[in-house]
Each structure stands twice: as structure tokens, then as C-alpha cells.
Amino acid sequence: MAPPLLALQDIHLTLGTAPLLTGAEISVSPGERLCLVGRNGSGKSTLLKIAAGLLPQDSGIRFVQPGATVRYLPQEPDMSEFSSVMAYVEAGMGPGDDAYRAQYLLEQLGLTGNEHPSHLSGGEARRAALARVLAPSPDILLLDEPTNHLDLPAIAWLEQELASLRSALVLISHDRRLLESLSRSIVWLDRGIARRLDRNFSHFEAWRDETLEQEERDRHKLGRKLAMEEDWLRYGVTARRKRNVKRLAGLHALREQRKQKNGPTGGARLAASETDLSGKLVAVAENMSLSFGDRPIVKNLTTRILRGDRVGIIGPNGAGKTTLLSMLTGSLQPDSGDIKIGSSLQMVSLDQRRASLDPNMTLADTLTGGHGQTVDVNGQSRHVIGYMKDFLFAPEQARTPVGVLSGGERGRVTLAVALAKPSNLLVLDEPTNDLDLETLELLQELLADYPGTVILVSHDRDFLDRVCTSVINSEGDGVWIEYAGGYSDMLAQRGKPAQLAPMDGGKSKTSGSSAPAKQTAPRKLSFKDKHALETLPKDMERLSSEIAKQRRILSDAKLFTRDRAGFDRSTKALQQAETELAAAEERWLELELMREAIS
Questions:
Q1: CA dihedral defined by 493, 497, 502, 503, rounded to 10 degrees?
Q2: Which of 99, 149, 557, 587 pairs with 78 at a CA distance of 20 to 30 A?
Q3: Longest dimension (CA), the chain
Q4: Residue 341 to residue 347: CA distance in whole angstroms
């Protein structure tokens, strides 16, 4: 086995008075693909910063192979010192790195490089940060939540780009689909220590549950049982996952019902009475359209949302997802067409920015509104400690100020506050941001049990598959189409790859991108293509010289008996050079034909 490029051994770190890491270890070999998982607050990002050399540990050893290059993607990149995106990206490159790759990556990510960092949206800043760490093609990539603020096309592109790299990866992400696609090993950070499983992320939950159940059996044998609260807090996740298997089967049945009652897209008719609208029908849109200036946001959308539906709205950043959400909930009226909203709806929106949370209030006071020890949930009074347990909080956290909770914990508080309010329509805009995998399981269970209707915007493919009965997808140029099922069902019905629409960094283009099959004009040469046309002739010349050199060496009839190792090296070098030359010639011919067609 190859020696590790990077290794952390017996890492200890205490933040404040509580130990965060108590002997954590991690090892990264060339080309390895690790996913680092654990609850919010378990120390994943901290361990990654120690691996990147940005945070000193209290004790333990950090080893990096001499000459190995390491690049780290933080959750919140700092670009304040740079005058342009290109300057920020180039600052992360070394003397021998290819400047063309920086331009190529920015082009693929929908940026020009001339943008000023202070004018970037969250998604654009994330794309610039990705270009900075990917451009040098480092030996080790440390990525902390790389899909945050990215839309579905960008996530699909990133997944393909990372899969094609030779770099070793250490990845923190809440995106299950990304982890399942890229990971080959799992490092589970739990209670300060790191456990490792050399299998794909799809095996994580079963392994985690088995490990925790074995621990419980061992504790029984030793006569030490956990307290009831801690037992529920840790093992409730296992029980929920097993229940969710049945819930997924029920979801598939709901999707089939939705497919049958919807009928052909665009054929709905407003025949329901006001009584129906206040009960069975939540929202009915017919030929609904809205434009901002000359730019169409929604064009002739006809759909109906029924009681109990879970509708996902998906598409690239800038497509108008939040605008469509506002129209379907009645807060924004269309320019033309009609939208009717159920007259007796009680809507609750999830505040994912958490602006409504007072950081100085305790967790218990936030949930009770500062009044007593009980929470009113759907007309029933519950003790605040019991309600806290439903959202994975321990009783001793009741007096903890909300401001010191982790991002995922504050996300759970927001969920708890929202779901305590009486409602029959739940509106969620990016509900999975900053949530760890166990909190995602909790959210999926809560939505499965929710008796009302859910309309949500999300870029989490696995979450959409597990929750939605239908999705409304942006096809470009203001066209939205509803598909029965989740994200994967939509791809199967469309018969198109995961790249939903060209990435444009949030800048709308109305060139008919929804029908790529009809485009007959040859595409423009990218920066990568132009660079290849310039460099491939030199590469082919170099490879031809290498082939001639190795053939001269192998022409020595006595080489095999005199130097068997040298013979083997020359044979391997000859085969590799011939393979690379054939590929280079084929690529050059393809690009030359493309250039002639464009000319």
C-alpha cells in the first residue's frame, strides 16, 4: 500500500472547556476518496482545518508528504483582498500551474473572472472558490460543503469534475448523492474519535447503526446502561431510519396516485368550487405568466396542488424558483393567467436564514416564547424537554443560548419553532442548508408525518427523491414543467442527463436552452479546446521522440538478459507513449475538424 500523503494521528483539541477531539485520526493515500461524516458540532470542519494546517491541535501529529500539494475549500471563502475573481483564483496557483485551467474552470462555472468579489452572490462566490482550489490540480483536495449555495446544474458539473480528478479527496457534505458517487471510504467523527470504513457512503447508515447497537450490547454486558434521554437521543436515529423504509414505499404509492390524478401536463381546468379550494385543492394555476422587463420568469404554467402533495421546485440559480414559490402561495400575482389559492389555508414558512432567532435567548425560551415550560403543538400542550428530544436536543441544553449552537443545531431550532405553529401548508426555501445527515433524516420523518401540504425549493437531489410527490422543473426561457415523482423520476421522464440547463452564474439567457437537441450550429471552442490545439502538436512531437528513444533501447538484443528491469521499464514506457500519442492524435484531429467547421 502506498504511504499516506497526509496523516493525522492522535489529534486532541479542546475549545472552551469542552474537549472536541480526543484522539481523532485520519490517513489519506494518493488518489483516495474519503467522506468525513458526523453530527453538526462533532468537529468535522475543525478536523479538516487541522488537516489543512490552518488550525493548531493541542496535541497529536500532523504529517504531510514532502512536496505534496494541499488545497482547502472553506465554507465561507474570504475574497476581500482581491480586485477581481481572476486575481483571487490565480493567487491560489503555483509557478508551474496551467493558467489556462483557471480560465477554463471559471468559464465552466459561469464566471468571466472580471467580476468584483464584493458583487458576487453566495452561489457565485462558491463557484469562484471552487475554481481556486481546482485550478492547481493538487495532490490532496480538502472540501468543506462544496455544494453549499450551488444549483443543480452546478452540482452535477462538480460531481463529474471531481470524479475525473486524480487528486485525493477528503469531503464534508450533506449531499448524499454526491457522497455516494465519489466516496470510497468513510471516516465517521463521533464523540471526539474517528472511525473508518473502507466502503462507499451507501453503507454508512447500516454500519453506524450496527456499531452503535454493538456498543449498547457491550454496555449491557458490563452493566452500564445509558440514561433514557441519551439512549433516545442516539438510538432514535436508528429507529427513524428503519421506519423511513416503510415511508419511502408509501411515498412511491403517493407518487403513482399523483401521476394518475394529474393527467397530461397543461390540461387542468378550473371546475372546482370555493368549498373544494378550501379543502382538497390548495392552489390552482391556469396559463399563469410573469415577466421582469423583457425576461420571462414564468410562461403559461398550468398546474394544481392538492392537499397532501409534496411539491419540489427545481432549476438553476436565477431561473425564478423563489418567484414561482411566491406565486403559488399567493404573495405575488401573475401578469396574465389565473392563480387561485385555498381560502382556509394556514401557511408557515421556514426561516432558513434564522433571522427570527434571538441569539441571547435560551433554547427552552425560544421554543416556549419565554412563557412557562410547555409548547403548544397542534393544539396539544407538551413539556419543552420532551419537544426538544424530538429534535435531537439533550435536556441539559435547555438553558443553552441559541447563539452558541452550531449551524445545524440552529436549523433544528428553526424547524421546531415552525412546526409548533398550527398550519396546513408548509413552505420551505432551501431547507437542507447546513443540516447534517441525522438532522436530514429527522426532517424527512417530520415531513412524512406532516398532515398538510408541502411546497419546497431545494438543490438536494436525494432529499427531493425521498420527500417529493412531484417536481416542477425550469426548462429555460420561463417554461416550467411538472413531473410526477422526485428528481430521479424527472430525469427518467425527460430522458436527459443531469445537466438541467447551461450554468450562467444567475444571469438569465433566453436562447432556447430547453431544447439542446435542436441546436445545429457548431459550438464555440472553449479556452481548454484552444489551449489543446496549441499544445497538442508539441506533445505529439515529444511522444514521437520518446517512442523512437525506447525503440532504440529495445533494439539491443542482449538487453533482456543483461538488464531485465531496464527492459521492463523501456517496454512499459514504450506502451504508455504509444497509447498517449494515439489519444493525442485523435483529440487533435477532432479539434481541428471543429475549428474548420466554425470557420
A1: 110
A2: 99
A3: 96
A4: 11
| CA contacts within 13 A on the Cβ side of 384 | 20
pLDDT band at residue 5 using 50, 70 and 90 as cut-offs: very high
The string of DSSP letters for 318-374 reads TS-HHHHHHHHTTSS--SEEEEEE-TT--EEEE-TT-TT--TTSBHHHHHHTTSTTE
Q: Report H helices in 32-151.
A: 44-52, 85-90, 99-108, 122-134
- Tens digits of residue pLDDT in 349-373: 876 566 678 888 999 999 988 888 8
d(CA 408, CA 387): 17
| Of the candidates 336, 370, 203, 341, the residue with the CA atom closest to the CA atom of residue 283 | 341
CA–CA distances in Å: residue 90 to residues 9, 77, 132: 33, 15, 7
DSSP 556: -
> Domains of the chain (ranges plus CATH)?
6-211 (3.40.50.300), 246-346+423-509 (3.40.50.300), 353-422 (no CATH), 527-598 (1.10.287.380)
Interaxial angle between packed helices 564-598 and 527-554, expressed in degrees from 0 to 180 and rounded to the nearest 10: 150
211 Cα distance to chain centroid: 26
Q: pTM score, two decimals?
A: 0.69
Q: How many angstroms separate the CA atoms of 493 and 458, rounded?
A: 19
Return mean pLDDT, the chain.
81
Calpha distance 473→481 (Å, rounded): 5
Residue 215: alpha-carbon gap to chain centroid: 31
> What nine digits make up the cell of 581?
500519442
